[in-house]
């Protein structure tokens, strides 16, 4: 894993009126790593991700993604990344094959590339027989796996995943993480938000947000050791208590 940074953020801030949704966060992400962006619902994870994806302009601070500036080059960022939102991001009234072709076309992929890779993807997901069925007919777990596959279909340098395993069963969650490992093995940097603390164990490094601020950033083992915690759930609880005490 390279030590060069593919994402950098310095004092990145987003303010809505009097509310500081993201409050001066700073961190780096290395190429090829699985970087977990953890925190409870409402901690500011999605707001921070939207700024990094070029979908929302920061109020202040600086950030670059794949070498592009979030203020000056948001369109270049969008072309260099994959993105899977926490709400299901494919078109329910299109078929599986039509969804793949639509999203690949947005990124300007050739017909030959789309045809060859679609066949490979359908085989990998065991969806050859369902390729011409509407996406709405798929169970949630399959929808999520398809959405992730489409998000990296154009072979981006980075993929941003916002709560990708929300609402799916434990078996599907494990299968989904196997797909994430495979993508990272191909050199794709994975930036994933989740409120499932056990999923932190699957990441190379994790940051933990509490009330818009990063309260800790380290490897899962490093966080457990420094906070003398037996699990990532305990790590989060200790950090949350610390944040409450410091805010009193």
UniProtKB/TrEMBL annotation:
Record keywords, A-Z: ATP-binding, Nucleotide-binding
Q: Which InterPro entries match?
A: AAA+_ATPase, ABC_transporter-like_ATP-bd, P-loop_NTPase
- Kindly give the PROSITE patterns that the UniProt entry links to this protein: ABC_TRANSPORTER_2 (PS50893)
Q: Which PANTHER family match?
A: ABC TRANSPORTER G FAMILY MEMBER 20 ISOFORM X1 (PTHR43038:SF3), ATP-BINDING CASSETTE, SUB-FAMILY H, MEMBER 1 (PTHR43038)
SMART domains named among the record's database cross-references: AAA
Protein known as: ABC-2 type transport system ATP-binding protein
**Which segment of the chain is annotated as a signal peptide?**
none
Recorded superkingdom: Bacteria
Q: Which GO terms describe its molecular function?
A: ATP binding; ATP hydrolysis activity
Q: Where is the ABC transporter domain?
A: 7-236
Checking Pfam families in the record gives: ABC_tran (PF00005)
């Amino acid at each position: 894993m390279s030590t060069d940074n593919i994402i950098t953020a310095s004092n990145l801030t987003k303010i809505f009126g009097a509310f500081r949704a993201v409050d001066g966060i700073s961190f780096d992400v290395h190429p090829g790593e699985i970087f977990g962006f953890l925190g409870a619902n409402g901690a500011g994870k999605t707001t921070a991700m939207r700024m990094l994806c070029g979908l929302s302009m920061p109020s202040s601070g600086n950030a670059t993604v794949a070498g592009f500036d979030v203020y000056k080059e948001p369109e270049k960022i969008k072309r260099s990344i994959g993105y899977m939102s926490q709400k299901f991001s494919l078109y329910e009234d299109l078929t599986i094959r039509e969804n793949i072709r639509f999203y690949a076309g947005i990124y300007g992929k050739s017909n030959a590339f789309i045809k060859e890779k679609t066949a490979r993807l359908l085989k990998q997901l065991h969806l050859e027989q369902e390729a011409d069925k509407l996406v709405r007919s798929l169970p949630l777990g399959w929808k999520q796996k398809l959405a992730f596959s489409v998000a990296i279909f154009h072979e981006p340098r980075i993929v941003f995943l916002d709560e990708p395993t929300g609402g799916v069963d434990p078996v599907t969650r494990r299968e989904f993480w196997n797909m994430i490992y495979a993508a990272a093995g191909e050199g794709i940097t994975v930036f994933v938000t989740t409120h499932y603390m056990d999923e932190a164990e699957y990441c190379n490094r994790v940051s933990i947000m509490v009330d818009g601020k990063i309260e800790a950033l380290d490897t899962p083992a490093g966080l457990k050791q420094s906070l003398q915690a037996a699990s990532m759930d305990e790590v989060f609880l200790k950090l949350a208590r610390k944040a409450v005490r410091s805010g009193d």
